[in-house]
Design goal:
Length: about 290
């Protein structure tokens, strides 16, 4: 690994000023489970590494039934996986967290690091997009809000600029009519990146879907919404014929590549299978 200067700012203002000054030469480190591997394997270079773990307030976690879930940049994947509040209200996110790497990795890895790495196969991004998550970003003296949906510009690329620190994430509260699911498909059951990941978050009553968001992972340069499929399902009674149509539509919306994990054709096929299955799970039964 090439040597780098290590910084441990004590406040957001200090960290942001440092990151703005150092520009592209600096990287934030949180859990380091992506960054350190990339630096070690020289897939990425950084002359400066800025640890945000000494900054107070970034480990906050709060839920209330009106405003939903909010948590900070230092909340780990394991905390999300094991939180009774998340398991009850956001089972798709809890499931995604439980499937990320190993317990050791999940104890260090942050959800924000998983998001900011901007991998198309990141496990937590599809359920968070399906759940309409938004980020709070600090830069200099101010904060701005970014819909998670609008963060990514390509594999490993985001709209974030030097000096930006993502400080927190917010998800709206689910309703009694909400249903959620995340299905990860890989070659192994554990320690495996997603070949395809499908997250669904919907509202339903008496078999009719009034609202739905579908996020597809690992089948395009970024995690994507299957917007045409969502439109097809909105306001309709879910039955096997409509599910078959939705599966076909989601396949058309995906743009997978082939690589060592799977061919493009296989990935596209699995988008159909998993979309149908995830909608069935979110509706409350296997369809
Ligand atoms: C063995 C192993 C298995 C893995 N398996 C999986 C898997 O199954 N699924 C999966 O999705 N991932 C997997 N990962 C990837 C990794 O664990 C996750 O992406 C992790 O959540 C990253 O979080 P971190 O805190 O370690 O991020 P770091 O490595 O500290 O940072 C990752 C990136 O995000 C940036 N960053 C971090 N925090 C912020 C912030 N607050 N604001 C702005 N930028 C920030 C960093 O600069 C860096 O670019 C695996 C990794 C390993 C080593």
């Amino acid at each position: 690994m090439k040597s780098f200067d290590y910084h441990e700012p004590a406040s957001l203002a200090e960290a942001s000023a440092l990151l703005a000054e150092l520009g592209k030469d600096a990287s934030i480190i949180a859990g380091g489970t992506d960054l350190l591997v990339e630096l070690k394997e020289e897939l990425r270079s950084a002359l400066h590494v800025v640890n945000i773990k000494k900054i107070p307030g970034l480990g906050d976690f709060a839920y209330d039934p009106e405003n939903g879930l909010r948590f900070g940049a230092l909340v780990t994947v394991r905390e999300i996986e094991t939180s009774p509040v998340v398991i009850r209200n956001y089972p798709n996110l809890a499931k995604a967290a439980s499937l990320l790497g190993s317990v050791q990795v999940r104890n260090r890895a942050t959800v924000m690091g998983n998001i900011c790495r901007a991998s198309p196969s990141a496990d937590t991004i599809p359920p968070l997009i399906a759940d309409c998550a938004s980020l709070t970003v600090f830069n200099g003296g101010g904060e701005r809000r970014i819909l998670l949906d609008e963060l990514f510009t390509g594999p490993g690329r985001t709209v974030l600029v030097p000096g930006d620190i993502v400080t927190g994430i917010a998800l709206p509260a689910p309703r009694a009519t909400s249903g959620k699911a995340y299905i990860k498909h890989g070659r192994r059951k554990a320690m495996e990146l997603a070949t395809v990941g499908v997250a669904v978050s919907l509202e339903h009553e008496a078999g009719t879907c009034s609202e739905i968001r579908i996020a597809l992972g690992a089948v395009a340069p970024t995690v994507i919404r299957a917007r045409r499929t969502e439109a097809l399902l909105r306001g309709r009674r879910i039955d096997p014929a409509l599910l078959a149509e939705a599966a076909e539509s989601a396949m058309q919306e995906s743009a997978p590549i082939g690589n060592v994990r799977a061919s493009a054709a296989y990935r596209r096929e699995m988008v159909g299978v998993l979309t149908r299955r995830a909608i069935g799970h979110a509706m409350g039964g296997a369809q």
